[in-house]
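Fig. S4 source data, part A: sequence.
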Amino acid sequence: MAKLLKLSSEQLSQQPHYDFGMRALKSILVKAGDMKKNFPDMDEKELLIRAMRSANVPKFLKEDLDLFESIIKDLYPDATLNPLDLGWLDKAVQYCVEKDNKFETPIWKEKLIQFWDNCNLRFGVMMVGAPNSGKT
């Protein structure tokens, strides 16, 4: 994890909202502990990769995502990520979509899960984006 944070701070673009220090490490460890409770049989390497992605990907610019993913692949070349069973969250999203007659897209759903995940991980969360980009 420390190597990933070090490489990310050196190779990704310099943004004021990027944090690769102790606070980021703590967020990853908290997320990993939470995932270990919810998915006790998950492989630890997979668990750590998911925690590192969960704590970092939502705050990255689009241009930095591919580089971050390649850093993970370099550090964990043999790791495979199995799909997570988030059935209860999928059902909740589906209920809200149907109730409000909204249109669901895979990207929107992914961002919604990232937002929910960050609300459970951090004390404060800020959503930024262009008008009509789905923040509401």
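Fig. S4 source data, part B ends here. Helices lie at 2-11, 22-38, 44-56, 62-75, 87-99, 106-121.
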